[in-house]
Specification:
Layout: E1 19-25, E2 28-34, E3 37-42, E4 45-52, H1 56-64, E5 66-72, H2 78-85, E6 104-106, E7 112-114, E8 118-131, E9 135-147, H3 156-163, E10 178-182, E11 188-190, E12 210-214
Antiparallel strand pairs: 1-2, 1-5, 3-4, 4-9, 5-8, 6-7, 8-9, 10-11, 10-12
């Protein structure tokens, strides 16, 4: 075994849940999918969440110091992930009346929480934050939390195997052309080299989550 190996596929073996992080700033409501939310202390109770800086929700949480986390269950359908994960709140109002947003309610803190395809939600108050480069880690105090259903929480693995549609071959690029396909959402970048700082415009994952395809 090569002691210096850094195989990015090892990251796929880590266990992740999936959550909708929602926030409100002024009149703007927004939300995004995150896969890092965990209890990190019990006395006092603290929950950590990490949000990609490319997401508008990140800026809203940083500005207001508050958010809600809705825990996605195995009963969720792909529409929930597509709505909150495959479009940007910078260009789309995800909570507009005609947006097709999954069912939601407004919590006492004035922030939406998702009721369709979820089993619990937490209202969080940011206590501390840490800059992690691509993400900010927010250490939060739960000010409210409740169970919405007994459905099993959705893991990243379950989403990949049972909810996310399998990428379909596009077949529109010339033979022999190099394509980089996002293994998360199926987005394809055409070009011989994928920039090191490339971020998928759909799901916001980086270069490590792309596979090289020669057609």
């Amino acid at each position: 075994m090569n002691s210096k190996e850094l195989n990015p596929k090892a990251m796929y073996k880590l266990s992740y849940g999936l959550f909708v992080c929602t926030a409100v700033s002024g009149e703007k409501k927004n939300g995004c999918i995150i896969n890092t939310a965990a209890q990190i202390a019990s006395d006092p109770n603290r929950i950590s969440i990490a949000i990609n800086k490319a997401n508008l929700t990140h800026d809203m949480v940083k500005e207001t110091g508050a958010c809600n986390i809705s825990v996605i269950s195995n009963e969720a359908d792909f529409a929930l992930f597509k709505h909150f994960g495959f479009q940007s709140g910078k260009t789309v109002d995800k909570f507009a009346k005609d947006s097709g947003a999954p069912a939601y309610e407004i919590a006492d803190n004035g922030i939406p929480y998702i009721t369709a395809g979820t089993n619990a939600y937490f209202s969080l108050k940011v206590d501390k934050e840490m800059d992690l480069g691509s993400h900010t880690l927010f250490i939060c105090e739960p000010v409210f939390m409740t169970v919405l259903s007994d459905a099993t929480s959705c893991t990243y693995e379950y989403y990949q195997n049972n909810i996310k549609p399998k990428p379909q071959p596009v077949g529109t690029t010339p033979k022999g052309e190099t394509v980089w396909r996002c293994t998360i959402c199926g987005y394809e970048y055409v070009g011989e080299d994928l920039p090191d700082d490339f971020i998928c415009p759909i799901c916001k994952h980086g270069k490590d989550d792309f596979e090289k395809i020669i057609r």
